[in-house]
Amino acid sequence: MNLYGATFFDKYTKLSKEQISEKIAGADIIHNRAISMDSDEPLKIVLDGGNTLIYKFSGDKLKFSENGSDEVLTYSRIKTLGSVSLLSHLVPGTLRQWHLVIDGKTRLVTAFETWFGGYDLSAREVWREYSQGYIDDGTSPPENRHTLTNRVENAGLHWLDDDGTETLVFTPSVIWSSYVELSHPRGGITKTAPSDFFRINDGMFIYSRVDCEFSGEFVLEVIDLFNVKHIGVKLGFCQKDNFFFKAYDGLGEVTGRAATLEPLTDYGTEIKLGSFGGAPGAPEPPRGTRPVYRPRLAHKDFSKEETAEIVRTNSHIFEGTSIMSAFNVMEPSEFMVGKKFALRYDGGDEFEYEVISGETLKWRVPGGTWSEERYQAFEPAPDIIFFSHLLTGSDPLRNLSPAVDFSTGLVSCIDAWLGCEIGAWQVAHKAQFGVLIEDGRTPPAVRRHGFTTDLVGKAFSWTYSDFMKSIHVYSSPESYSWTIMLDNGSGGFMWSSPCIYIKLRDDAYLMSWTEDDCNGNQGTIVFNPRIMHDAGFFFGIAGDANPPDLHLTTTGALARDLGTFDIKKFFGGQINID
């Protein structure tokens, strides 16, 4: 699977509320009705927010009354796991649904009311409002409730469900999660979604997520970590815009637990967004709002002509800093100053260099005209020099970031350029492998650096500065997620990217990612696991700047090893980047 320049996420129709209503009305909601149940007694649920729900069961049919309304007939999705049942159903004639997690042992209930159309720009996105409550059986109400929790934070789980779906799930955040759909034909792609986590008891938890900004799919699961089983329901529209509403169960495996970073006495029963929580005095968010950000909407989709104008009039090459490059950038290297050499790549490219100073070099293709560029260089491991520069005048504009091992004569280069299938302003990239050509050196004939799975499954924290910290989970051979930390040290907002992993040596790994359908930028680093430090560069268009600019800046962060997830076996050792 070649991901270079390809669309990272699938594209989905922006369905209207009217279209959704028609599709639900025409769908076969009886299909996949899961377990039926009979009860002579009605089930009465009282929710703390004021709602009262009454259910009467007869086989696969369900009569439902909400807050004293007339009974309506619908079809239920019911799954049971131990003493806990998951009851899910549509509300006929509306775009709403109810999903109830009911613990028959304690009589406690966590209810999710969901509906299509909470997000105005695409009504296919499911919004939710959760509330706590209990079964009213005529006796005194229980005093306790299910609570928010961080007990699932930084867990890794593998699930194989009864419908054949196979998924890896990672939870480096208390408000978000990431997942890799192994059974999806495209494979290997990490996606992220705002999520909820509730504690039922010490072994059982509630997990929900919504594929915001894309498919809009809603997932709700009850997870039994004592036995590593789960039950769940999925609701939404597939890429072909067909409505689905299905229940499932599955068996799992805990693939690992990464370290958490909040205080040991923080039990996660409150969401502490801190500086991410909005400005003081901001209006109350609408019902069903999740902690979510929509990076695609934060950046204008520039045309090729607009992109060229930004490059021509407002380029900043190694000028200033970005949020990713404040304090922990590695010391610049002047190792190459005064050197003359060439880098020859197997794909046919070759570039000759004369390095004038620690900030200026000249390059040309053999026999061509010399061009002068600004550059920066680092030595992240002994004799490995990692540098970056533009190819001014190229169309589309290219940025080369070679990692040259002057001890072995090998080079790996991340070749990036403006423009891909997503947009003219977003960055695409590929890896090139080759050799160092210089006087007195015989280059290796066959040996090269190569793609690697060494980092797959690992989790690291990265500290860029006092105000910029994140967690990386390398969740597949071709993609990863990052988590921006909240003020109390717990994980917060997440996103993901396709990426390239290359092994230079045991003490140096080259990684590059493109923030597709996000800010469109590219990051490239060399990471040294011996000193837990990286060095690298960010390249792209800052569409949210005023005015927008092209930038090539340095970056660097200090790492901590948070643990490893045992997931390589699920990819069969294959690296699908070509």
Please write the CATH class name of the largest domain.
Mainly Beta
Kindly report the name of the CATH homologous superfamily of the largest domain: Calycin beta-barrel core domain
Mind summarizing the main beta sheet?
11 strands, mixed
Number of strands: 37
| Strand portion | over 45%
Question: Could you tell me the radius of gyration in angstroms?
Answer: 27 Å
Straight-line N-to-C gap: 7 Å
Task: Please bin the fraction of helical residues.
Answer: under 10%
Q: What is the molecular shape? A: elongated
- Derived from helix and strand composition plus strand pairing, the structural class reads mainly beta
CATH architecture of the largest domain: Beta Barrel
**What's the domain count?**
4
CATH topology (fold) name of the largest domain: Lipocalin
